[in-house]
Amino acid sequence: MDHAKSFGLSDPSQAIGKTDFDFFTEEHARQAYEDEQKIIRTGQPVVSKEEKLTWDNRPDSWSSTTKLPLCDNEGNIIGTFGISKDITDNKKATEEMAKAHNLLLALINNMPDRIYIKDTQSRFIVCNNALVKRMGRSSPEEIIGKTDFDLVEPDLATQYFENEQEIIRSVKPMINKEESRIINGRLTWSLTTKVPWVDEEGNVYGIVGIGKDITERKRSDMESQVMYEIAQGITATYNLDELMKLIHKSLGKVVYAENCFVALYNQETRLFSFPYFVDKFDTTPSPMSMEKSCTAYVFRNNKPFLFSNEEFKRLVELNEIEQVGSVSASWIGIPLQIASKMIGVLVLQHYEKENIYSEGDLKFLLSVGSQIAIAIERKKGEEEIKLKNELLQVINAEKDKFFSILAHDLRGPLSSFVAATQILTEEIQSMSLEEIKDITISMKTDASNIYNLLENLLEWSRLKRNVMEFVKIKFSLDKKIAYCIQPISEMARKKEIEINISVPEDIEVTADDHMFDTVIRNIVSNAVKFTRKEGKIDISAFKNQDNFIEIIITDTGIGMSAELKNKLFLLNEKVNRKGTEGEPSSGLGLLLCKEFIEKHGGKIWVESEVGKGSTFTFTIPA
Fold it and tell me: Is 0.70 surpassed by the pTM of this model?
Protein backbone atom coordinates (compact mmCIF):
# COMPACT_ATOMS: atom_id res chain seq x y z
CA MET A 1 0.00 0.00 0.00
CA ASP A 2 2.88 2.43 0.89
CA HIS A 3 4.47 1.70 -2.42
CA ALA A 4 1.21 2.42 -4.26
CA LYS A 5 0.89 5.71 -2.37
CA SER A 6 4.40 6.68 -3.43
CA PHE A 7 3.11 6.40 -7.03
CA GLY A 8 0.07 8.49 -6.17
CA LEU A 9 -2.27 5.47 -6.35
CA SER A 10 -5.06 4.63 -3.93
CA ASP A 11 -4.85 0.86 -4.45
CA PRO A 12 -1.90 -1.39 -5.21
CA SER A 13 -3.94 -3.12 -7.91
CA GLN A 14 -3.78 0.08 -9.93
CA ALA A 15 -0.04 -0.51 -10.46
CA ILE A 16 -0.43 -4.08 -11.74
CA GLY A 17 0.62 -4.43 -15.37
CA LYS A 18 2.43 -1.08 -15.46
CA THR A 19 6.16 -0.31 -15.66
CA ASP A 20 8.37 2.41 -14.30
CA PHE A 21 7.89 4.23 -17.61
CA ASP A 22 4.27 4.88 -16.56
CA PHE A 23 5.31 6.72 -13.38
CA PHE A 24 8.84 8.16 -13.71
CA THR A 25 10.67 10.23 -16.22
CA GLU A 26 12.43 8.52 -19.09
CA GLU A 27 15.81 8.98 -17.40
CA HIS A 28 14.99 7.14 -14.17
CA ALA A 29 12.69 4.54 -15.78
CA ARG A 30 15.42 3.59 -18.25
CA GLN A 31 18.01 3.18 -15.45
CA ALA A 32 15.56 1.02 -13.40
CA TYR A 33 14.73 -1.11 -16.42
CA GLU A 34 18.45 -1.72 -17.18
CA ASP A 35 19.16 -2.65 -13.55
CA GLU A 36 16.34 -5.21 -13.54
CA GLN A 37 17.33 -6.72 -16.89
CA LYS A 38 20.87 -7.12 -15.60
CA ILE A 39 19.56 -8.96 -12.51
CA ILE A 40 17.52 -11.30 -14.76
CA ARG A 41 20.55 -11.99 -16.96
CA THR A 42 23.12 -12.48 -14.21
CA GLY A 43 21.15 -13.39 -11.15
CA GLN A 44 23.17 -10.78 -9.21
CA PRO A 45 21.02 -8.65 -6.83
CA VAL A 46 21.22 -4.87 -6.29
CA VAL A 47 21.47 -4.18 -2.59
CA SER A 48 20.69 -0.87 -0.84
CA LYS A 49 21.31 1.25 -3.89
CA GLU A 50 20.59 4.94 -3.43
CA GLU A 51 18.47 6.10 -6.32
CA LYS A 52 17.28 9.50 -7.35
CA LEU A 53 13.63 9.24 -8.36
CA THR A 54 12.66 11.78 -11.00
CA TRP A 55 8.99 12.49 -11.65
CA ASP A 56 7.21 14.39 -14.34
CA ASN A 57 4.79 16.26 -12.13
CA ARG A 58 6.43 16.49 -8.68
CA PRO A 59 9.78 17.11 -7.00
CA ASP A 60 12.51 14.51 -7.17
CA SER A 61 12.92 12.11 -4.26
CA TRP A 62 15.44 9.56 -3.05
CA SER A 63 15.10 5.91 -2.07
CA SER A 64 17.27 3.08 -0.87
CA THR A 65 16.43 0.12 -3.16
CA THR A 66 17.18 -3.58 -2.96
CA LYS A 67 16.27 -5.76 -5.95
CA LEU A 68 16.56 -9.57 -6.08
CA PRO A 69 15.99 -12.18 -8.83
CA LEU A 70 12.52 -13.87 -8.74
CA CYS A 71 12.80 -17.65 -9.50
CA ASP A 72 10.30 -20.43 -10.17
CA ASN A 73 10.30 -23.80 -8.44
CA GLU A 74 12.98 -25.04 -10.78
CA GLY A 75 15.26 -22.09 -10.09
CA ASN A 76 14.69 -20.30 -13.35
CA ILE A 77 14.65 -16.49 -13.13
CA ILE A 78 11.27 -15.28 -14.17
CA GLY A 79 11.52 -11.68 -12.96
CA THR A 80 12.58 -9.48 -10.01
CA PHE A 81 11.16 -8.35 -6.78
CA GLY A 82 12.33 -5.41 -4.73
CA ILE A 83 12.17 -3.44 -1.53
CA SER A 84 12.59 0.35 -1.45
CA LYS A 85 12.75 2.83 1.41
CA ASP A 86 12.17 6.53 1.09
CA ILE A 87 15.31 8.34 2.27
CA THR A 88 14.50 11.76 0.85
CA ASP A 89 14.54 13.50 4.22
CA ASN A 90 17.83 11.83 5.22
CA LYS A 91 19.37 12.68 1.86
CA LYS A 92 18.38 16.30 2.17
CA ALA A 93 19.80 16.46 5.66
CA THR A 94 23.05 14.89 4.46
CA GLU A 95 23.27 17.29 1.55
CA GLU A 96 22.67 20.23 3.85
CA MET A 97 25.41 18.98 6.16
CA ALA A 98 27.75 18.52 3.18
CA LYS A 99 26.98 22.04 2.01
CA ALA A 100 27.64 23.41 5.47
CA HIS A 101 30.87 21.39 5.69
CA ASN A 102 32.04 22.58 2.29
CA LEU A 103 31.13 26.15 3.17
CA LEU A 104 33.10 25.88 6.39
CA LEU A 105 36.09 24.41 4.58
CA ALA A 106 35.90 27.15 1.94
CA LEU A 107 35.72 29.77 4.67
CA ILE A 108 38.64 28.28 6.60
CA ASN A 109 40.80 27.81 3.50
CA ASN A 110 40.24 31.37 2.33
CA MET A 111 40.92 32.95 5.71
CA PRO A 112 44.23 34.91 5.79
CA ASP A 113 44.80 33.64 9.34
CA ARG A 114 46.30 30.19 9.89
CA ILE A 115 43.67 27.77 11.26
CA TYR A 116 44.39 24.23 12.37
CA ILE A 117 43.26 21.42 14.67
CA LYS A 118 45.59 19.04 16.46
CA ASP A 119 44.91 15.85 18.41
CA THR A 120 46.15 15.17 21.94
CA GLN A 121 49.58 14.17 20.56
CA SER A 122 49.84 17.55 18.79
CA ARG A 123 49.42 15.92 15.38
CA PHE A 124 47.72 18.03 12.72
CA ILE A 125 44.32 16.67 11.72
CA VAL A 126 42.99 19.82 10.00
CA CYS A 127 44.84 22.76 8.47
CA ASN A 128 43.95 25.52 6.04
CA ASN A 129 45.76 26.93 3.03
CA ALA A 130 47.30 29.80 5.00
CA LEU A 131 49.06 27.31 7.29
CA VAL A 132 50.19 25.22 4.32
CA LYS A 133 51.78 28.31 2.80
CA ARG A 134 53.38 29.38 6.11
CA MET A 135 54.93 25.93 6.49
CA GLY A 136 56.36 26.13 3.00
CA ARG A 137 54.37 23.12 1.78
CA SER A 138 52.22 22.65 -1.34
CA SER A 139 49.17 20.80 0.06
CA PRO A 140 47.48 19.89 3.38
CA GLU A 141 48.44 16.25 2.82
CA GLU A 142 52.07 17.18 3.50
CA ILE A 143 51.06 18.38 6.99
CA ILE A 144 48.14 16.19 8.15
CA GLY A 145 49.29 13.48 10.55
CA LYS A 146 52.58 15.24 11.33
CA THR A 147 53.74 17.27 14.32
CA ASP A 148 55.76 20.48 14.48
CA PHE A 149 58.87 18.35 15.03
CA ASP A 150 58.48 17.21 11.42
CA LEU A 151 57.95 20.73 10.10
CA VAL A 152 59.96 23.37 12.02
CA GLU A 153 63.25 23.67 13.88
CA PRO A 154 63.52 21.56 17.09
CA ASP A 155 63.64 24.44 19.59
CA LEU A 156 60.51 26.01 18.18
CA ALA A 157 58.72 22.64 17.91
CA THR A 158 59.50 21.94 21.57
CA GLN A 159 58.07 25.31 22.58
CA TYR A 160 54.85 24.71 20.61
CA PHE A 161 54.46 21.16 21.93
CA GLU A 162 54.88 22.17 25.58
CA ASN A 163 52.35 25.01 25.20
CA GLU A 164 49.77 22.69 23.64
CA GLN A 165 50.25 19.91 26.18
CA GLU A 166 49.73 22.43 28.97
CA ILE A 167 46.47 23.57 27.32
CA ILE A 168 45.30 19.95 27.06
CA ARG A 169 46.21 19.23 30.71
CA SER A 170 44.74 22.39 32.17
CA VAL A 171 41.86 22.80 29.67
CA LYS A 172 42.74 26.51 29.68
CA PRO A 173 43.18 28.48 26.45
CA MET A 174 46.19 30.56 25.38
CA ILE A 175 44.88 33.85 24.00
CA ASN A 176 46.70 36.29 21.69
CA LYS A 177 50.27 35.32 22.49
CA GLU A 178 52.92 37.13 20.41
CA GLU A 179 55.40 34.66 18.90
CA SER A 180 58.41 35.35 16.69
CA ARG A 181 60.12 33.14 14.18
CA ILE A 182 62.87 33.59 11.58
CA ILE A 183 61.79 32.36 8.13
CA ASN A 184 64.28 32.56 5.24
CA GLY A 185 66.43 34.90 7.27
CA ARG A 186 63.60 37.31 8.09
CA LEU A 187 62.03 37.86 11.47
CA THR A 188 58.27 37.20 11.43
CA TRP A 189 55.65 37.70 14.15
CA SER A 190 52.36 35.95 14.89
CA LEU A 191 49.47 36.56 17.27
CA THR A 192 48.53 33.03 18.34
CA THR A 193 45.39 31.72 20.05
CA LYS A 194 45.03 28.05 21.03
CA VAL A 195 41.93 26.67 22.78
CA PRO A 196 41.16 23.15 24.01
CA TRP A 197 38.87 21.02 21.78
CA VAL A 198 36.32 19.60 24.25
CA ASP A 199 33.04 17.65 23.78
CA GLU A 200 29.84 18.13 25.81
CA GLU A 201 31.02 15.66 28.43
CA GLY A 202 34.31 17.48 28.97
CA ASN A 203 36.55 15.04 27.08
CA VAL A 204 39.57 16.77 25.47
CA TYR A 205 40.30 15.68 21.91
CA GLY A 206 43.09 18.16 21.20
CA ILE A 207 43.42 21.86 20.46
CA VAL A 208 42.13 24.34 17.90
CA GLY A 209 44.60 27.02 16.86
CA ILE A 210 44.47 30.34 15.03
CA GLY A 211 47.61 32.24 14.06
CA LYS A 212 47.48 35.80 12.74
CA ASP A 213 50.48 37.27 10.93
CA ILE A 214 51.33 40.60 12.60
CA THR A 215 54.79 40.98 11.04
CA GLU A 216 53.88 44.18 9.19
CA ARG A 217 52.41 45.73 12.31
CA LYS A 218 55.40 44.75 14.45
CA ARG A 219 57.79 45.87 11.73
CA SER A 220 56.04 49.24 11.53
CA ASP A 221 56.33 49.60 15.31
CA MET A 222 60.02 48.62 15.26
CA GLU A 223 60.74 50.94 12.33
CA SER A 224 59.24 53.83 14.30
CA GLN A 225 61.30 52.79 17.33
CA VAL A 226 64.50 52.66 15.25
CA MET A 227 63.84 56.12 13.81
CA TYR A 228 63.31 57.41 17.35
CA GLU A 229 66.50 55.75 18.63
CA ILE A 230 68.55 57.26 15.80
CA ALA A 231 67.06 60.71 16.44
CA GLN A 232 67.88 60.36 20.14
CA GLY A 233 71.36 59.07 19.33
CA ILE A 234 72.16 62.14 17.27
CA THR A 235 71.75 64.33 20.34
CA ALA A 236 72.92 61.89 23.02
CA THR A 237 76.13 60.34 21.60
CA TYR A 238 79.46 62.15 21.72
CA ASN A 239 81.28 60.94 18.60
CA LEU A 240 80.63 59.45 15.19
CA ASP A 241 81.84 55.94 16.07
CA GLU A 242 79.45 55.67 19.04
CA LEU A 243 76.60 56.96 16.87
CA MET A 244 77.30 54.42 14.10
CA LYS A 245 77.37 51.58 16.65
CA LEU A 246 73.98 52.72 17.95
CA ILE A 247 72.55 52.97 14.40
CA HIS A 248 73.95 49.53 13.51
CA LYS A 249 72.39 47.95 16.60
CA SER A 250 69.04 49.64 15.92
CA LEU A 251 68.95 48.56 12.25
CA GLY A 252 69.48 44.95 13.34
CA LYS A 253 66.07 45.01 15.02
CA VAL A 254 64.37 45.34 11.62
CA VAL A 255 66.75 43.94 8.96
CA TYR A 256 69.69 41.54 8.83
CA ALA A 257 72.68 43.76 9.65
CA GLU A 258 75.49 41.47 10.82
CA ASN A 259 77.67 42.77 7.96
CA CYS A 260 77.36 46.54 7.74
CA PHE A 261 79.55 49.41 6.60
CA VAL A 262 79.38 53.09 5.76
CA ALA A 263 81.47 54.38 2.85
CA LEU A 264 82.00 58.18 2.82
CA TYR A 265 83.24 59.95 -0.31
CA ASN A 266 85.97 62.60 -0.14
CA GLN A 267 85.56 65.13 -2.94
CA GLU A 268 89.20 66.25 -2.71
CA THR A 269 90.87 62.82 -2.82
CA ARG A 270 88.01 61.14 -4.77
CA LEU A 271 88.34 58.16 -2.46
CA PHE A 272 85.90 56.30 -0.24
CA SER A 273 86.81 55.97 3.43
CA PHE A 274 85.15 53.62 5.89
CA PRO A 275 84.51 55.27 9.27
CA TYR A 276 82.32 52.31 10.25
CA PHE A 277 83.01 48.76 9.01
CA VAL A 278 81.71 45.55 10.62
CA ASP A 279 82.15 42.37 8.58
CA LYS A 280 82.56 38.66 9.39
CA PHE A 281 85.12 38.14 6.60
CA ASP A 282 86.69 41.38 5.34
CA THR A 283 88.79 43.79 7.39
CA THR A 284 88.38 47.55 7.28
CA PRO A 285 89.88 48.64 3.96
CA SER A 286 92.09 51.67 3.43
CA PRO A 287 90.60 54.57 1.49
CA MET A 288 90.03 53.49 -2.13
CA SER A 289 88.32 54.62 -5.32
CA MET A 290 85.97 51.57 -5.67
CA GLU A 291 85.21 52.72 -9.23
CA LYS A 292 83.44 49.54 -10.38
CA SER A 293 82.06 48.33 -7.05
CA CYS A 294 78.36 48.10 -6.20
CA THR A 295 78.98 50.81 -3.59
CA ALA A 296 80.37 53.21 -6.19
CA TYR A 297 77.46 52.34 -8.51
CA VAL A 298 74.96 53.42 -5.81
CA PHE A 299 76.93 56.64 -5.23
CA ARG A 300 77.27 57.44 -8.94
CA ASN A 301 73.62 56.94 -9.74
CA ASN A 302 72.25 58.32 -6.47
CA LYS A 303 69.78 55.46 -6.19
CA PRO A 304 69.53 52.32 -4.03
CA PHE A 305 70.58 48.92 -5.32
CA LEU A 306 68.88 45.71 -4.16
CA PHE A 307 71.16 42.91 -5.32
CA SER A 308 69.94 40.02 -7.43
CA ASN A 309 72.06 37.63 -9.48
CA GLU A 310 70.26 38.62 -12.68
CA GLU A 311 70.70 42.35 -12.14
CA PHE A 312 74.33 41.91 -11.04
CA LYS A 313 75.15 39.92 -14.19
CA ARG A 314 73.40 42.51 -16.35
CA LEU A 315 75.40 45.38 -14.83
CA VAL A 316 78.64 43.40 -15.15
CA GLU A 317 77.93 42.86 -18.85
CA LEU A 318 77.33 46.61 -19.21
CA ASN A 319 80.72 47.19 -17.52
CA GLU A 320 78.96 49.19 -14.80
CA ILE A 321 80.18 47.10 -11.85
CA GLU A 322 82.57 44.32 -10.91
CA GLN A 323 83.09 42.14 -7.84
CA VAL A 324 84.95 43.86 -4.98
CA GLY A 325 85.60 42.04 -1.68
CA SER A 326 83.99 38.76 -0.65
CA VAL A 327 81.03 37.50 -2.72
CA SER A 328 77.64 38.21 -1.12
CA ALA A 329 74.47 36.18 -1.64
CA SER A 330 72.40 39.22 -0.61
CA TRP A 331 73.47 42.88 -0.81
CA ILE A 332 71.68 46.18 -0.41
CA GLY A 333 73.13 49.68 -0.80
CA ILE A 334 71.45 52.93 0.23
CA PRO A 335 72.64 56.41 -0.83
CA LEU A 336 73.40 58.81 2.01
CA GLN A 337 72.23 62.21 0.86
CA ILE A 338 71.65 65.63 2.40
CA ALA A 339 69.49 67.82 0.17
CA SER A 340 71.26 67.57 -3.20
CA LYS A 341 74.61 66.54 -1.72
CA MET A 342 75.68 62.89 -1.78
CA ILE A 343 78.09 62.05 1.05
CA GLY A 344 78.33 58.25 0.87
CA VAL A 345 76.61 54.87 0.92
CA LEU A 346 75.19 52.56 3.63
CA VAL A 347 75.68 48.86 2.82
CA LEU A 348 74.23 45.69 4.39
CA GLN A 349 75.03 42.20 3.14
CA HIS A 350 74.56 38.49 3.81
CA TYR A 351 77.15 36.02 2.53
CA GLU A 352 75.17 32.76 2.72
CA LYS A 353 71.46 33.34 2.05
CA GLU A 354 69.89 34.82 -1.05
CA ASN A 355 66.95 37.25 -1.15
CA ILE A 356 67.37 38.26 2.49
CA TYR A 357 66.42 41.85 1.70
CA SER A 358 63.03 42.89 0.31
CA GLU A 359 61.47 45.97 -1.26
CA GLY A 360 60.07 46.73 2.21
CA ASP A 361 63.62 46.74 3.60
CA LEU A 362 64.65 49.06 0.77
CA LYS A 363 61.92 51.57 1.60
CA PHE A 364 62.74 51.46 5.30
CA LEU A 365 66.49 51.91 4.76
CA LEU A 366 65.85 54.80 2.38
CA SER A 367 63.88 56.59 5.10
CA VAL A 368 66.66 55.87 7.58
CA GLY A 369 69.41 56.82 5.11
CA SER A 370 68.63 60.53 5.18
CA GLN A 371 68.68 60.49 8.99
CA ILE A 372 72.03 58.69 8.97
CA ALA A 373 73.45 61.21 6.49
CA ILE A 374 72.29 64.14 8.64
CA ALA A 375 73.67 62.46 11.74
CA ILE A 376 77.07 61.82 10.13
CA GLU A 377 77.41 65.38 8.88
CA ARG A 378 76.34 66.81 12.22
CA LYS A 379 78.73 64.60 14.19
CA LYS A 380 81.57 65.37 11.78
CA GLY A 381 80.88 69.06 12.33
CA GLU A 382 80.76 68.62 16.10
CA GLU A 383 84.00 66.61 16.09
CA GLU A 384 85.66 69.24 13.90
CA ILE A 385 84.64 71.95 16.36
CA LYS A 386 85.86 69.79 19.24
CA LEU A 387 89.18 69.20 17.47
CA LYS A 388 89.57 72.90 16.82
CA ASN A 389 88.83 73.65 20.48
CA GLU A 390 91.42 71.10 21.56
CA LEU A 391 93.92 72.58 19.11
CA LEU A 392 93.14 76.03 20.46
CA GLN A 393 93.77 74.79 23.98
CA VAL A 394 97.14 73.40 22.88
CA ILE A 395 98.00 76.67 21.18
CA ASN A 396 97.04 78.59 24.32
CA ALA A 397 99.12 76.22 26.43
CA GLU A 398 102.08 76.73 24.07
CA LYS A 399 101.59 80.48 24.25
CA ASP A 400 101.42 80.36 28.06
CA LYS A 401 104.54 78.20 28.13
CA PHE A 402 106.34 80.59 25.80
CA PHE A 403 105.46 83.65 27.86
CA SER A 404 106.28 81.82 31.08
CA ILE A 405 109.77 81.09 29.78
CA LEU A 406 110.20 84.68 28.62
CA ALA A 407 108.92 86.04 31.95
CA HIS A 408 110.86 83.77 34.28
CA ASP A 409 113.53 81.55 32.79
CA LEU A 410 114.87 84.13 30.36
CA ARG A 411 114.41 87.11 32.67
CA GLY A 412 116.46 85.59 35.52
CA PRO A 413 119.73 85.01 33.61
CA LEU A 414 119.33 88.34 31.79
CA SER A 415 118.87 90.17 35.08
CA SER A 416 122.02 88.53 36.47
CA PHE A 417 123.92 89.41 33.31
CA VAL A 418 122.74 93.06 33.42
CA ALA A 419 123.61 93.29 37.14
CA ALA A 420 127.12 91.95 36.43
CA THR A 421 127.68 94.48 33.65
CA GLN A 422 126.50 97.27 35.96
CA ILE A 423 128.99 96.21 38.64
CA LEU A 424 131.77 96.17 36.08
CA THR A 425 130.73 99.55 34.74
CA GLU A 426 130.53 101.25 38.13
CA GLU A 427 133.21 99.50 40.21
CA ILE A 428 135.82 98.12 37.81
CA GLN A 429 138.39 100.74 38.91
CA SER A 430 138.30 99.56 42.49
CA MET A 431 138.04 95.81 41.79
CA SER A 432 140.84 93.33 41.92
CA LEU A 433 141.74 91.13 38.98
CA GLU A 434 140.34 88.09 40.77
CA GLU A 435 137.01 89.83 41.38
CA ILE A 436 136.79 90.88 37.74
CA LYS A 437 137.54 87.30 36.68
CA ASP A 438 134.74 85.90 38.90
CA ILE A 439 132.23 88.37 37.49
CA THR A 440 133.18 87.66 33.87
CA ILE A 441 132.93 83.91 34.49
CA SER A 442 129.46 84.47 35.95
CA MET A 443 128.56 86.61 32.91
CA LYS A 444 129.78 83.87 30.57
CA THR A 445 127.65 81.28 32.42
CA ASP A 446 124.59 83.53 32.22
CA ALA A 447 125.22 84.22 28.55
CA SER A 448 125.57 80.49 27.82
CA ASN A 449 122.34 79.72 29.65
CA ILE A 450 120.56 82.54 27.80
CA TYR A 451 121.97 81.31 24.48
CA ASN A 452 120.88 77.70 25.11
CA LEU A 453 117.41 78.81 26.15
CA LEU A 454 117.04 81.10 23.13
CA GLU A 455 118.23 78.30 20.88
CA ASN A 456 115.54 75.97 22.25
CA LEU A 457 112.91 78.70 21.92
CA LEU A 458 113.84 79.30 18.31
CA GLU A 459 113.86 75.56 17.56
CA TRP A 460 110.42 75.16 19.12
CA SER A 461 109.08 78.21 17.26
CA ARG A 462 110.32 76.89 13.91
CA LEU A 463 108.82 73.48 14.63
CA LYS A 464 105.41 74.91 15.52
CA ARG A 465 105.38 77.10 12.41
CA ASN A 466 106.29 74.10 10.24
CA VAL A 467 109.28 75.92 8.76
CA MET A 468 111.88 73.50 10.08
CA GLU A 469 113.48 71.29 7.45
CA PHE A 470 113.30 67.56 8.05
CA VAL A 471 116.01 65.69 6.16
CA LYS A 472 116.98 62.21 7.30
CA ILE A 473 120.46 60.86 6.75
CA LYS A 474 122.29 57.75 7.93
CA PHE A 475 125.24 58.14 10.32
CA SER A 476 127.36 56.22 12.82
CA LEU A 477 125.77 56.51 16.28
CA ASP A 478 128.87 56.36 18.53
CA LYS A 479 130.69 59.08 16.59
CA LYS A 480 127.59 61.23 16.49
CA ILE A 481 127.04 61.04 20.26
CA ALA A 482 130.70 61.87 20.92
CA TYR A 483 130.38 64.94 18.70
CA CYS A 484 127.11 66.05 20.34
CA ILE A 485 128.41 66.01 23.91
CA GLN A 486 131.60 67.98 23.24
CA PRO A 487 130.01 71.34 24.20
CA ILE A 488 128.73 69.76 27.43
CA SER A 489 132.05 68.20 28.42
CA GLU A 490 133.37 71.40 30.02
CA MET A 491 130.28 71.70 32.23
CA ALA A 492 130.65 68.02 33.23
CA ARG A 493 134.40 68.47 33.93
CA LYS A 494 133.73 71.34 36.30
CA LYS A 495 131.33 69.14 38.30
CA GLU A 496 133.81 66.23 38.06
CA ILE A 497 131.12 64.11 36.35
CA GLU A 498 132.30 61.14 34.27
CA ILE A 499 130.50 60.53 30.93
CA ASN A 500 130.85 57.00 29.48
CA ILE A 501 129.76 56.09 25.92
CA SER A 502 129.18 52.35 25.38
CA VAL A 503 127.75 52.21 21.87
CA PRO A 504 128.77 49.47 19.38
CA GLU A 505 130.68 50.89 16.40
CA ASP A 506 128.47 49.11 13.86
CA ILE A 507 125.18 50.76 14.93
CA GLU A 508 123.84 53.30 12.49
CA VAL A 509 120.70 55.44 12.68
CA THR A 510 118.60 57.25 10.10
CA ALA A 511 117.56 60.66 11.41
CA ASP A 512 117.58 64.39 10.84
CA ASP A 513 121.10 65.48 11.78
CA HIS A 514 120.16 68.72 13.51
CA MET A 515 117.17 67.32 15.42
CA PHE A 516 119.23 64.36 16.67
CA ASP A 517 121.94 66.76 17.92
CA THR A 518 119.29 68.75 19.80
CA VAL A 519 117.86 65.62 21.48
CA ILE A 520 121.25 64.29 22.67
CA ARG A 521 122.43 67.76 23.77
CA ASN A 522 119.29 68.44 25.84
CA ILE A 523 119.08 65.04 27.57
CA VAL A 524 122.81 64.85 28.42
CA SER A 525 122.98 68.49 29.58
CA ASN A 526 119.96 67.81 31.83
CA ALA A 527 121.75 64.75 33.24
CA VAL A 528 124.81 66.89 34.03
CA LYS A 529 122.62 69.63 35.50
CA PHE A 530 120.84 67.30 37.95
CA THR A 531 123.85 65.17 38.93
CA ARG A 532 126.01 66.13 41.89
CA LYS A 533 129.80 66.41 41.81
CA GLU A 534 131.74 63.23 41.13
CA GLY A 535 128.64 61.61 39.61
CA LYS A 536 128.47 59.44 36.48
CA ILE A 537 126.52 59.39 33.21
CA ASP A 538 126.34 56.29 30.97
CA ILE A 539 125.20 56.36 27.35
CA SER A 540 124.46 53.02 25.64
CA ALA A 541 122.43 51.73 22.66
CA PHE A 542 121.21 48.56 20.95
CA LYS A 543 118.92 47.52 18.08
CA ASN A 544 115.56 46.12 19.25
CA GLN A 545 113.31 43.56 17.56
CA ASP A 546 111.28 46.27 15.81
CA ASN A 547 114.41 47.43 13.93
CA PHE A 548 114.61 50.59 16.03
CA ILE A 549 117.69 51.77 17.91
CA GLU A 550 117.13 52.25 21.64
CA ILE A 551 119.41 54.90 23.16
CA ILE A 552 119.69 54.87 26.96
CA ILE A 553 121.13 57.78 29.00
CA THR A 554 121.47 56.96 32.70
CA ASP A 555 122.73 59.30 35.44
CA THR A 556 123.42 58.98 39.17
CA GLY A 557 121.70 62.29 39.88
CA ILE A 558 119.01 63.42 42.29
CA GLY A 559 116.19 61.66 40.40
CA MET A 560 112.57 62.76 40.56
CA SER A 561 109.26 61.89 42.19
CA ALA A 562 106.56 59.91 40.43
CA GLU A 563 104.41 63.05 40.27
CA LEU A 564 107.14 65.06 38.56
CA LYS A 565 107.95 62.17 36.20
CA ASN A 566 104.31 61.97 35.05
CA LYS A 567 104.29 65.71 34.24
CA LEU A 568 107.62 65.74 32.46
CA PHE A 569 106.39 65.70 28.86
CA LEU A 570 103.11 67.63 29.38
CA LEU A 571 103.01 71.09 27.87
CA ASN A 572 100.60 72.61 30.38
CA GLU A 573 102.53 71.46 33.48
CA LYS A 574 105.32 73.35 35.21
CA VAL A 575 108.34 71.10 35.74
CA ASN A 576 111.20 73.61 35.78
CA ARG A 577 113.57 73.27 38.77
CA LYS A 578 117.17 74.30 39.43
CA GLY A 579 120.12 71.96 39.01
CA THR A 580 122.36 70.72 41.81
CA GLU A 581 124.42 73.94 41.62
CA GLY A 582 121.58 76.33 40.90
CA GLU A 583 121.57 75.81 37.10
CA PRO A 584 118.35 77.13 35.54
CA SER A 585 115.88 74.79 33.78
CA SER A 586 112.74 75.64 31.78
CA GLY A 587 111.53 72.13 30.92
CA LEU A 588 111.29 73.25 27.30
CA GLY A 589 114.24 71.09 26.19
CA LEU A 590 112.47 67.81 27.01
CA LEU A 591 109.29 68.95 25.24
CA LEU A 592 111.41 69.70 22.18
CA CYS A 593 113.07 66.28 22.45
CA LYS A 594 109.68 64.55 22.54
CA GLU A 595 108.44 66.45 19.46
CA PHE A 596 111.64 65.67 17.48
CA ILE A 597 111.66 61.99 18.43
CA GLU A 598 107.97 61.50 17.59
CA LYS A 599 108.51 63.24 14.24
CA HIS A 600 110.91 60.35 13.47
CA GLY A 601 108.29 57.79 14.49
CA GLY A 602 110.03 57.00 17.78
CA LYS A 603 109.09 57.49 21.42
CA ILE A 604 110.72 58.61 24.66
CA TRP A 605 110.19 57.54 28.28
CA VAL A 606 111.88 57.91 31.66
CA GLU A 607 112.47 55.80 34.75
CA SER A 608 113.49 57.56 37.95
CA GLU A 609 113.41 57.51 41.74
CA VAL A 610 114.23 60.31 44.15
CA GLY A 611 117.92 60.08 45.13
CA LYS A 612 118.62 57.18 42.75
CA GLY A 613 119.12 58.95 39.46
CA SER A 614 117.20 58.85 36.18
CA THR A 615 117.24 56.83 32.97
CA PHE A 616 115.99 58.43 29.76
CA THR A 617 115.34 56.04 26.85
CA PHE A 618 114.27 56.94 23.32
CA THR A 619 113.95 55.07 20.04
CA ILE A 620 115.01 56.16 16.56
CA PRO A 621 114.83 54.28 13.22
CA ALA A 622 117.87 52.18 12.31
Answer: no
